[in-house]
Amino acid sequence: MVREISAGGVVVRNQDGEWWIAAIELPTEEASAPESATRAVKPKAKPVLCLPKGLVDPGEKPLEAALREVREETGITATAITKLADIKYMYVRSWGGGEKVFKIVSFYLLRYESGKIDDISEDMRVEVGRARWVRLAEAAKLLAYRGEKQMARKALEYLNANPAP
After folding, report:
1. What is the pLDDT of residues 108-161, one digit of tens each?
2. Among 1, 27, 70, 128, which residue has the fewest nearby CB atoms (within 10 Å)?
């Protein structure tokens, strides 16, 4: 079985007394170009909302990977507040030989620093349809994946317990 180590971020921003997080939508079929067979992420029939995350590169620390992935996938920069948790799951690759993969994703709570959401390179559009701000209070309902819903809940719990991180 293949093992993958990834890292991602729950980037928070307080605007007018309300917490928001940066989220990404995977590319959709209608937004996909005809060359979609070469895409890193298979286009979805309808928008799938998730957190920015990706593989930890050789020699890179998970927090460094989380900050890089946030920058690449959302266009914003952030700083670390705390590690939220690791999520672990298995999946079967839909490409190559259909291998089983055991994946660990370390998620970090990050504070927005600068940049404009969705200001990403054209090359990144194969992985990200668009990036946008989502109310943290609604994120657990809107995010597509169970582990990421848990990370949104953990972020909200942390911010409620530590109002000025």
Report:
1. 999 999 999 999 999 999 999 999 999 999 999 999 999 999 999 999 999 999
2. 1
Q: Is the pTM of this model over 0.85?
A: yes
Using DSSP, state whether 72 is helix, strand or coil: helix
Are residues 5 and 104 in contact, defined by beta-carbon separation less than 8 angstroms?
yes
CA triple 21-25-31, angle to 5 deg: 150
* Residue type at position 113: E
Integer CA distances (angstroms), 165 to 7, 64, 112, 150, in order: 21, 20, 12, 20
Residue type, 30: E
DSSP secondary structure string, 81-141?
A: EEEEEEEEEEEE-SSTT--EEEEEEEEEEEEEEEE-TT---GGGGGT-SEEEEEEHHHHHH
Q: How far apart are CA 104 and CA 145, in angstroms?
A: 14
For residue 54, give its domain range: 2-161
User: pLDDT per residue over 39-86, tens digit each?
Assistant: 455 655 678 999 999 999 999 999 999 999 999 999 999 999 999 999
Sequence-separated (6 or more) residues with CB below 8 Å from residue 96:
none
CATH no. for residue 11? 3.90.79.10
- Partnered with residue 145 across adjacent β-strands are none
